[in-house]
Amino acid sequence: MPVISAHCFANHRGGVGKTTLAYQVSSAYAAAHPGRKVLVIDTTDSGDLSEMLMGGIYEKRGREMLRSLIPVANVTQMFLRALVASTSTSLSDVLKAEEYEDGVLTSVVQKMPLAKGAVESSPLEKAKVMKRIDLEEFGIPLKQVNSRMPSNMFLCPSGLDIEHSISFSATQRQDIIAVLLDSFQNAEGEWKVFIDTDTELYGENGAYANIGFGIADFICLPLHADMSDWYGAKVLINDMQLLHDMDVSHAQVHLVLWNGLNVQFKQSCGVTVGGISKCTFIPTKAEQDIIQTLDNLVYQEAQIMPNLFLHYNGAKTTAEEFSAKCSTCMRNFGVVGVASKDIGVPIACIKPGIFHGVHMDYNLSIDTIKHCRENLEEIVKAIDQVDEKNNPRKICRQHLEFLKARRMERKLGIKLKLKHKSPLTTVKKRRRHSASSASKDTTSVMYKTYALRNRYSLRERSKQMKAKLFIDNFESSSISTA
Asked: What's residue 427's pLDDT?
Protein backbone atom coordinates (compact mmCIF):
# COMPACT_ATOMS: atom_id res chain seq x y z
CA MET A 1 0.00 0.00 0.00
CA PRO A 2 1.44 3.42 -0.90
CA VAL A 3 2.27 6.19 1.55
CA ILE A 4 -1.02 7.86 2.50
CA SER A 5 0.40 11.38 2.29
CA ALA A 6 3.37 13.49 3.35
CA HIS A 7 3.01 16.66 5.44
CA CYS A 8 5.87 19.16 5.55
CA PHE A 9 6.34 21.82 8.24
CA ALA A 10 7.91 24.90 6.68
CA ASN A 11 8.61 28.58 7.26
CA HIS A 12 11.34 31.02 6.25
CA ARG A 13 11.55 32.40 9.78
CA GLY A 14 13.08 30.61 12.72
CA GLY A 15 11.52 30.40 16.15
CA VAL A 16 7.90 30.09 15.01
CA GLY A 17 7.53 26.54 16.36
CA LYS A 18 8.07 24.63 13.12
CA THR A 19 10.24 21.88 14.60
CA THR A 20 8.26 21.74 17.86
CA LEU A 21 4.97 21.23 16.02
CA ALA A 22 6.54 18.62 13.72
CA TYR A 23 7.67 16.78 16.87
CA GLN A 24 4.32 16.98 18.65
CA VAL A 25 1.99 16.45 15.68
CA SER A 26 3.88 13.46 14.25
CA SER A 27 3.91 11.81 17.69
CA ALA A 28 0.21 12.55 18.24
CA TYR A 29 -0.60 11.10 14.82
CA ALA A 30 1.40 7.94 15.55
CA ALA A 31 -0.35 7.53 18.91
CA ALA A 32 -3.76 7.94 17.26
CA HIS A 33 -2.98 5.45 14.44
CA PRO A 34 -1.08 2.51 15.96
CA GLY A 35 -1.71 0.39 12.85
CA ARG A 36 0.18 2.78 10.56
CA LYS A 37 3.91 3.30 10.27
CA VAL A 38 4.93 6.93 10.69
CA LEU A 39 8.20 8.08 9.11
CA VAL A 40 9.69 11.41 10.23
CA ILE A 41 12.29 12.86 7.84
CA ASP A 42 14.52 15.54 9.37
CA THR A 43 16.20 17.63 6.65
CA THR A 44 17.34 20.47 8.92
CA ASP A 45 20.90 21.58 9.55
CA SER A 46 20.75 21.46 13.35
CA GLY A 47 18.90 18.16 13.78
CA ASP A 48 16.80 19.50 16.68
CA LEU A 49 13.82 17.33 15.74
CA SER A 50 16.00 14.23 15.70
CA GLU A 51 17.40 15.18 19.10
CA MET A 52 13.92 15.56 20.62
CA LEU A 53 12.67 12.26 19.22
CA MET A 54 15.77 10.35 20.34
CA GLY A 55 15.67 11.33 24.00
CA GLY A 56 15.43 15.09 24.46
CA ILE A 57 17.85 17.67 25.79
CA TYR A 58 18.28 16.22 29.31
CA GLU A 59 21.86 14.99 29.85
CA LYS A 60 22.33 15.34 26.07
CA ARG A 61 20.63 11.98 25.61
CA GLY A 62 19.14 12.89 22.25
CA ARG A 63 22.35 14.39 20.88
CA GLU A 64 24.52 11.48 21.99
CA MET A 65 22.07 8.96 20.59
CA LEU A 66 21.92 10.91 17.33
CA ARG A 67 25.70 10.90 16.97
CA SER A 68 25.90 7.17 17.63
CA LEU A 69 23.18 6.27 15.10
CA ILE A 70 24.07 8.70 12.30
CA PRO A 71 26.29 6.06 10.62
CA VAL A 72 23.37 3.62 10.52
CA ALA A 73 20.90 5.85 8.66
CA ASN A 74 20.50 9.54 7.92
CA VAL A 75 18.86 11.81 5.39
CA THR A 76 22.10 12.34 3.45
CA GLN A 77 22.45 8.60 2.89
CA MET A 78 18.79 8.40 1.84
CA PHE A 79 19.24 11.13 -0.78
CA LEU A 80 22.50 9.61 -2.04
CA ARG A 81 20.92 6.18 -2.34
CA ALA A 82 17.99 7.71 -4.23
CA LEU A 83 20.42 9.48 -6.55
CA VAL A 84 22.19 6.22 -7.33
CA ALA A 85 18.83 4.47 -7.76
CA SER A 86 17.84 7.10 -10.31
CA THR A 87 20.68 5.88 -12.56
CA SER A 88 19.59 2.24 -12.40
CA THR A 89 17.89 2.25 -15.81
CA SER A 90 21.02 3.37 -17.66
CA LEU A 91 23.04 1.27 -15.23
CA SER A 92 21.24 -1.86 -16.40
CA ASP A 93 21.92 -0.94 -20.02
CA VAL A 94 25.62 -0.48 -19.31
CA LEU A 95 25.81 -3.81 -17.50
CA LYS A 96 24.20 -5.51 -20.47
CA ALA A 97 26.65 -3.82 -22.83
CA GLU A 98 29.60 -4.96 -20.73
CA GLU A 99 28.19 -8.51 -20.56
CA TYR A 100 29.71 -8.85 -17.09
CA GLU A 101 33.27 -8.97 -18.49
CA ASP A 102 35.43 -7.42 -15.76
CA GLY A 103 33.80 -4.03 -16.16
CA VAL A 104 34.58 -1.27 -13.66
CA LEU A 105 30.89 -0.57 -13.12
CA THR A 106 30.13 -4.24 -12.59
CA SER A 107 32.77 -4.44 -9.87
CA VAL A 108 31.37 -1.33 -8.19
CA VAL A 109 27.83 -2.72 -8.21
CA GLN A 110 29.11 -6.02 -6.90
CA LYS A 111 30.56 -4.27 -3.83
CA MET A 112 27.38 -2.32 -3.06
CA PRO A 113 25.21 -3.31 -0.07
CA LEU A 114 22.62 -5.83 -1.23
CA ALA A 115 19.20 -4.22 -1.65
CA LYS A 116 16.09 -5.97 -0.41
CA GLY A 117 14.91 -8.62 -2.86
CA ALA A 118 18.04 -8.56 -5.01
CA VAL A 119 19.72 -11.70 -6.28
CA GLU A 120 23.20 -11.74 -4.80
CA SER A 121 24.85 -13.52 -7.72
CA SER A 122 23.66 -11.08 -10.37
CA PRO A 123 24.77 -7.43 -10.44
CA LEU A 124 22.10 -6.77 -13.08
CA GLU A 125 19.33 -7.94 -10.75
CA LYS A 126 20.87 -5.84 -8.00
CA ALA A 127 20.71 -2.78 -10.26
CA LYS A 128 17.05 -3.42 -11.09
CA VAL A 129 16.03 -3.54 -7.44
CA MET A 130 17.87 -0.28 -6.79
CA LYS A 131 15.29 1.70 -8.77
CA ARG A 132 13.47 2.20 -5.47
CA ILE A 133 14.52 2.46 -1.84
CA ASP A 134 13.09 0.72 1.20
CA LEU A 135 11.72 3.24 3.70
CA GLU A 136 12.56 1.04 6.67
CA GLU A 137 16.19 0.83 5.53
CA PHE A 138 16.63 4.52 6.40
CA GLY A 139 14.09 4.70 9.24
CA ILE A 140 15.39 4.12 12.77
CA PRO A 141 12.70 2.53 15.00
CA LEU A 142 12.28 5.15 17.70
CA LYS A 143 10.86 2.74 20.27
CA GLN A 144 14.23 0.97 20.36
CA VAL A 145 16.03 4.28 20.89
CA ASN A 146 13.55 6.10 23.14
CA SER A 147 11.25 3.70 24.99
CA ARG A 148 8.69 6.45 25.64
CA MET A 149 7.89 6.96 21.95
CA PRO A 150 5.08 5.20 20.03
CA SER A 151 6.19 1.84 18.67
CA ASN A 152 5.12 2.65 15.09
CA MET A 153 7.40 5.69 14.64
CA PHE A 154 10.53 5.70 12.48
CA LEU A 155 13.07 8.50 12.07
CA CYS A 156 15.39 9.35 9.21
CA PRO A 157 17.62 11.74 11.19
CA SER A 158 19.50 14.80 10.09
CA GLY A 159 23.22 14.36 9.66
CA LEU A 160 24.17 17.70 8.19
CA ASP A 161 26.09 18.99 11.18
CA ILE A 162 27.98 15.69 11.49
CA GLU A 163 28.39 14.70 7.85
CA HIS A 164 29.27 16.96 4.97
CA SER A 165 26.14 18.27 3.29
CA ILE A 166 25.91 17.94 -0.45
CA SER A 167 24.85 20.71 -2.81
CA PHE A 168 22.76 18.65 -5.20
CA SER A 169 22.22 20.20 -8.61
CA ALA A 170 18.73 20.93 -9.95
CA THR A 171 18.65 17.79 -12.10
CA GLN A 172 19.97 15.66 -9.26
CA ARG A 173 17.24 17.00 -6.98
CA GLN A 174 14.62 16.08 -9.56
CA ASP A 175 16.01 12.55 -9.83
CA ILE A 176 16.06 12.15 -6.04
CA ILE A 177 12.48 13.41 -5.75
CA ALA A 178 11.35 11.04 -8.52
CA VAL A 179 12.91 8.00 -6.82
CA LEU A 180 11.48 8.91 -3.41
CA LEU A 181 7.99 9.51 -4.82
CA ASP A 182 8.18 6.19 -6.64
CA SER A 183 9.28 4.52 -3.41
CA PHE A 184 6.34 6.14 -1.62
CA GLN A 185 3.97 4.75 -4.26
CA ASN A 186 5.34 1.22 -3.84
CA ALA A 187 5.98 1.13 -0.09
CA GLU A 188 5.13 -2.02 1.81
CA GLY A 189 2.54 -1.46 4.51
CA GLU A 190 0.58 1.67 5.41
CA TRP A 191 2.83 4.71 5.91
CA LYS A 192 2.44 8.35 6.84
CA VAL A 193 5.35 10.78 6.34
CA PHE A 194 6.17 14.01 8.20
CA ILE A 195 9.01 16.30 7.08
CA ASP A 196 10.82 19.10 8.90
CA THR A 197 12.70 21.63 6.76
CA ASP A 198 15.17 24.46 7.27
CA THR A 199 14.34 28.13 6.97
CA GLU A 200 16.05 28.61 3.60
CA LEU A 201 15.23 27.15 0.21
CA TYR A 202 18.41 28.46 -1.33
CA GLY A 203 22.03 28.62 -0.29
CA GLU A 204 24.40 25.93 0.93
CA ASN A 205 21.81 23.58 2.44
CA GLY A 206 18.80 24.74 0.45
CA ALA A 207 18.87 21.57 -1.67
CA TYR A 208 17.63 19.51 1.27
CA ALA A 209 14.64 21.80 1.84
CA ASN A 210 13.92 21.73 -1.90
CA ILE A 211 13.79 17.94 -1.84
CA GLY A 212 11.57 18.08 1.26
CA PHE A 213 9.11 20.30 -0.59
CA GLY A 214 9.34 18.07 -3.65
CA ILE A 215 8.25 14.89 -1.86
CA ALA A 216 5.56 16.56 0.28
CA ASP A 217 1.85 16.54 -0.55
CA PHE A 218 0.77 19.18 1.96
CA ILE A 219 2.38 22.09 3.80
CA CYS A 220 1.73 23.11 7.41
CA LEU A 221 2.71 26.75 7.88
CA PRO A 222 3.35 27.69 11.54
CA LEU A 223 3.17 31.43 12.33
CA HIS A 224 2.99 33.73 15.28
CA ALA A 225 0.10 36.16 15.26
CA ASP A 226 2.10 39.24 14.24
CA MET A 227 2.79 41.05 11.00
CA SER A 228 6.54 40.44 10.93
CA ASP A 229 5.97 36.68 10.78
CA TRP A 230 3.42 37.19 8.04
CA TYR A 231 5.91 39.07 5.86
CA GLY A 232 8.32 36.14 6.12
CA ALA A 233 5.52 33.69 5.32
CA LYS A 234 4.54 35.71 2.28
CA VAL A 235 8.06 35.28 0.89
CA LEU A 236 7.79 31.53 1.48
CA ILE A 237 4.42 31.40 -0.31
CA ASN A 238 5.92 33.14 -3.33
CA ASP A 239 8.87 30.72 -3.31
CA MET A 240 6.48 27.78 -3.13
CA GLN A 241 4.58 29.12 -6.13
CA LEU A 242 7.89 29.35 -7.97
CA LEU A 243 8.60 25.70 -7.15
CA HIS A 244 5.15 24.85 -8.52
CA ASP A 245 5.84 26.78 -11.71
CA MET A 246 9.15 24.94 -12.10
CA ASP A 247 7.35 21.62 -11.46
CA VAL A 248 9.69 20.88 -8.57
CA SER A 249 6.87 20.53 -6.03
CA HIS A 250 3.19 19.60 -6.05
CA ALA A 251 2.60 20.41 -2.37
CA GLN A 252 -0.36 22.58 -1.33
CA VAL A 253 -0.82 24.66 1.81
CA HIS A 254 -3.12 22.65 4.05
CA LEU A 255 -3.00 24.44 7.41
CA VAL A 256 -1.86 27.83 8.65
CA LEU A 257 -1.08 27.26 12.33
CA TRP A 258 -1.26 30.38 14.50
CA ASN A 259 1.17 29.20 17.14
CA GLY A 260 1.94 30.15 20.74
CA LEU A 261 -1.42 31.83 21.50
CA ASN A 262 -2.46 32.80 25.00
CA VAL A 263 -5.65 31.28 26.38
CA GLN A 264 -8.50 33.55 27.40
CA PHE A 265 -11.13 30.85 27.98
CA LYS A 266 -10.62 27.09 28.08
CA GLN A 267 -13.62 26.33 25.91
CA SER A 268 -14.42 25.83 22.25
CA CYS A 269 -14.31 28.96 20.14
CA GLY A 270 -17.68 28.07 18.56
CA VAL A 271 -16.38 27.81 14.98
CA THR A 272 -16.73 24.27 13.58
CA VAL A 273 -15.40 22.62 10.44
CA GLY A 274 -17.22 19.41 9.47
CA GLY A 275 -18.60 19.10 12.98
CA ILE A 276 -15.15 19.48 14.58
CA SER A 277 -14.31 22.54 16.65
CA LYS A 278 -11.89 24.93 14.95
CA CYS A 279 -10.01 25.30 18.25
CA THR A 280 -10.56 24.01 21.78
CA PHE A 281 -9.88 27.35 23.42
CA ILE A 282 -10.55 31.07 22.92
CA PRO A 283 -7.47 33.28 22.42
CA THR A 284 -7.25 36.78 23.88
CA LYS A 285 -9.26 39.53 22.18
CA ALA A 286 -6.14 41.23 20.79
CA GLU A 287 -4.91 37.99 19.24
CA GLN A 288 -8.35 37.29 17.78
CA ASP A 289 -8.31 40.64 15.98
CA ILE A 290 -4.80 40.09 14.62
CA ILE A 291 -5.66 36.57 13.44
CA GLN A 292 -8.76 37.83 11.67
CA THR A 293 -6.68 40.42 9.80
CA LEU A 294 -3.99 37.86 8.93
CA ASP A 295 -6.60 35.33 7.77
CA ASN A 296 -7.86 37.92 5.29
CA LEU A 297 -4.31 38.43 4.02
CA VAL A 298 -3.89 34.68 3.56
CA TYR A 299 -7.19 34.62 1.66
CA GLN A 300 -5.93 37.36 -0.65
CA GLU A 301 -2.83 35.29 -1.42
CA ALA A 302 -5.06 32.31 -2.15
CA GLN A 303 -6.99 34.39 -4.67
CA ILE A 304 -3.74 35.29 -6.42
CA MET A 305 -2.30 31.73 -6.27
CA PRO A 306 -5.39 29.47 -6.14
CA ASN A 307 -3.57 26.22 -6.99
CA LEU A 308 -1.25 26.62 -4.04
CA PHE A 309 -3.94 26.48 -1.33
CA LEU A 310 -5.84 23.27 -0.75
CA HIS A 311 -9.04 24.80 0.64
CA TYR A 312 -9.50 27.49 -2.00
CA ASN A 313 -11.99 26.39 -4.66
CA GLY A 314 -12.28 29.54 -6.71
CA ALA A 315 -14.52 32.59 -6.37
CA LYS A 316 -17.28 30.58 -4.69
CA THR A 317 -15.06 30.17 -1.59
CA THR A 318 -15.70 33.02 0.84
CA ALA A 319 -13.08 34.40 3.20
CA GLU A 320 -14.94 32.97 6.21
CA GLU A 321 -15.15 29.46 4.72
CA PHE A 322 -11.52 29.54 3.68
CA SER A 323 -10.18 30.67 7.06
CA ALA A 324 -12.41 28.20 8.90
CA LYS A 325 -10.78 25.31 7.04
CA CYS A 326 -7.25 26.61 6.55
CA SER A 327 -6.56 28.52 9.77
CA THR A 328 -6.04 26.76 13.11
CA CYS A 329 -5.14 28.20 16.53
CA MET A 330 -2.38 26.55 18.57
CA ARG A 331 -2.07 27.30 22.26
CA ASN A 332 1.15 28.07 24.04
CA PHE A 333 2.05 24.65 25.45
CA GLY A 334 3.81 26.34 28.36
CA VAL A 335 5.53 24.15 30.91
CA VAL A 336 4.18 20.98 29.28
CA GLY A 337 5.87 21.85 26.00
CA VAL A 338 9.15 22.78 27.68
CA ALA A 339 9.17 19.55 29.70
CA SER A 340 8.29 17.50 26.63
CA LYS A 341 11.32 18.73 24.68
CA ASP A 342 13.60 18.56 27.70
CA ILE A 343 12.92 14.94 28.68
CA GLY A 344 12.20 13.64 25.17
CA VAL A 345 8.59 12.56 25.74
CA PRO A 346 5.94 13.98 23.35
CA ILE A 347 2.75 15.42 24.79
CA ALA A 348 0.77 12.54 23.29
CA CYS A 349 2.74 10.09 25.47
CA ILE A 350 3.58 12.13 28.58
CA LYS A 351 1.93 11.29 31.90
CA PRO A 352 1.19 13.45 34.96
CA GLY A 353 3.91 13.64 37.56
CA ILE A 354 7.27 15.20 38.41
CA PHE A 355 10.05 15.10 35.82
CA HIS A 356 13.70 16.08 36.12
CA GLY A 357 14.99 18.43 33.42
CA VAL A 358 18.33 20.06 32.67
CA HIS A 359 17.90 23.05 34.97
CA MET A 360 14.62 22.42 36.78
CA ASP A 361 11.97 19.91 37.76
CA TYR A 362 8.54 19.88 36.09
CA ASN A 363 5.31 19.15 37.93
CA LEU A 364 2.70 18.34 35.27
CA SER A 365 -0.97 18.00 36.12
CA ILE A 366 -3.66 16.02 34.30
CA ASP A 367 -5.56 19.13 33.19
CA THR A 368 -2.60 20.93 31.59
CA ILE A 369 -1.63 17.81 29.64
CA LYS A 370 -5.24 17.22 28.61
CA HIS A 371 -5.70 20.72 27.16
CA CYS A 372 -2.51 20.43 25.10
CA ARG A 373 -3.49 17.00 23.80
CA GLU A 374 -6.91 18.24 22.73
CA ASN A 375 -5.27 20.95 20.66
CA LEU A 376 -2.96 18.43 18.96
CA GLU A 377 -5.86 16.07 18.32
CA GLU A 378 -7.48 18.85 16.29
CA ILE A 379 -4.54 18.84 13.90
CA VAL A 380 -4.57 15.04 13.65
CA LYS A 381 -8.29 15.08 12.80
CA ALA A 382 -7.70 17.77 10.17
CA ILE A 383 -4.95 15.61 8.63
CA ASP A 384 -7.26 12.59 8.62
CA GLN A 385 -10.00 14.59 6.94
CA VAL A 386 -7.77 15.80 4.12
CA ASP A 387 -6.38 12.29 3.58
CA GLU A 388 -9.91 10.85 3.33
CA LYS A 389 -11.57 13.54 1.21
CA ASN A 390 -8.69 14.35 -1.12
CA ASN A 391 -6.57 12.06 -3.23
CA PRO A 392 -2.98 13.15 -2.60
CA ARG A 393 -1.56 10.05 -4.31
CA LYS A 394 -3.25 11.02 -7.60
CA ILE A 395 -1.47 14.40 -7.67
CA CYS A 396 1.73 12.67 -6.55
CA ARG A 397 1.49 10.20 -9.44
CA GLN A 398 1.01 13.05 -11.90
CA HIS A 399 4.09 14.80 -10.50
CA LEU A 400 6.08 11.56 -10.69
CA GLU A 401 5.08 10.96 -14.30
CA PHE A 402 6.15 14.48 -15.17
CA LEU A 403 9.56 13.99 -13.53
CA LYS A 404 10.03 10.73 -15.42
CA ALA A 405 9.10 12.46 -18.67
CA ARG A 406 11.56 15.25 -17.96
CA ARG A 407 14.30 12.71 -17.25
CA MET A 408 13.54 11.01 -20.56
CA GLU A 409 13.80 14.36 -22.33
CA ARG A 410 17.23 14.90 -20.80
CA LYS A 411 18.32 11.49 -22.01
CA LEU A 412 17.05 12.17 -25.52
CA GLY A 413 18.70 15.57 -25.49
CA ILE A 414 22.06 14.02 -24.64
CA LYS A 415 21.70 11.45 -27.42
CA LEU A 416 20.72 14.10 -29.96
CA LYS A 417 23.69 16.21 -28.92
CA LEU A 418 26.08 13.30 -29.40
CA LYS A 419 24.52 12.55 -32.75
CA HIS A 420 24.87 16.15 -33.86
CA LYS A 421 28.55 16.25 -32.90
CA SER A 422 29.45 13.17 -34.93
CA PRO A 423 26.90 12.77 -37.76
CA LEU A 424 29.26 10.70 -39.92
CA THR A 425 30.07 8.07 -37.32
CA THR A 426 28.61 4.62 -37.72
CA VAL A 427 25.75 3.38 -35.60
CA LYS A 428 28.06 0.87 -33.96
CA LYS A 429 30.56 3.55 -32.91
CA ARG A 430 27.81 5.84 -31.63
CA ARG A 431 26.42 3.08 -29.47
CA ARG A 432 29.85 2.32 -28.09
CA HIS A 433 30.50 6.02 -27.37
CA SER A 434 27.10 6.42 -25.70
CA ALA A 435 27.63 3.36 -23.52
CA SER A 436 31.13 4.41 -22.44
CA SER A 437 30.04 7.97 -21.58
CA ALA A 438 27.04 6.66 -19.65
CA SER A 439 29.37 4.30 -17.79
CA LYS A 440 31.72 7.17 -16.93
CA ASP A 441 28.91 9.45 -15.70
CA THR A 442 27.22 6.70 -13.72
CA THR A 443 30.37 5.41 -12.09
CA SER A 444 31.49 8.90 -11.10
CA VAL A 445 28.23 9.41 -9.19
CA MET A 446 28.49 5.99 -7.59
CA TYR A 447 32.17 6.45 -6.70
CA LYS A 448 31.49 9.55 -4.68
CA THR A 449 28.21 8.27 -3.23
CA TYR A 450 29.76 5.19 -1.75
CA ALA A 451 32.96 6.94 -0.79
CA LEU A 452 30.81 9.12 1.48
CA ARG A 453 28.81 6.10 2.61
CA ASN A 454 32.06 4.27 3.35
CA ARG A 455 33.36 7.23 5.32
CA TYR A 456 30.40 7.38 7.66
CA SER A 457 29.14 3.77 7.76
CA LEU A 458 29.59 1.12 10.42
CA ARG A 459 33.03 -0.35 11.07
CA GLU A 460 32.20 -3.68 9.44
CA ARG A 461 31.10 -1.99 6.23
CA SER A 462 34.11 0.34 6.35
CA LYS A 463 36.51 -2.59 6.51
CA GLN A 464 34.97 -4.02 3.36
CA MET A 465 35.04 -0.75 1.43
CA LYS A 466 38.05 1.13 2.81
CA ALA A 467 40.24 0.51 -0.26
CA LYS A 468 41.01 3.48 -2.47
CA LEU A 469 38.16 2.47 -4.74
CA PHE A 470 36.42 5.80 -5.01
CA ILE A 471 38.87 8.50 -3.93
CA ASP A 472 40.51 9.14 -7.34
CA ASN A 473 37.21 10.21 -8.92
CA PHE A 474 36.22 12.88 -6.38
CA GLU A 475 37.21 15.79 -8.64
CA SER A 476 35.33 14.48 -11.68
CA SER A 477 32.14 13.66 -9.78
CA SER A 478 28.93 15.56 -10.48
CA ILE A 479 28.26 15.93 -6.77
CA SER A 480 30.11 18.65 -4.87
CA THR A 481 30.50 18.45 -1.11
CA ALA A 482 29.98 21.58 0.97
From this structure: 36
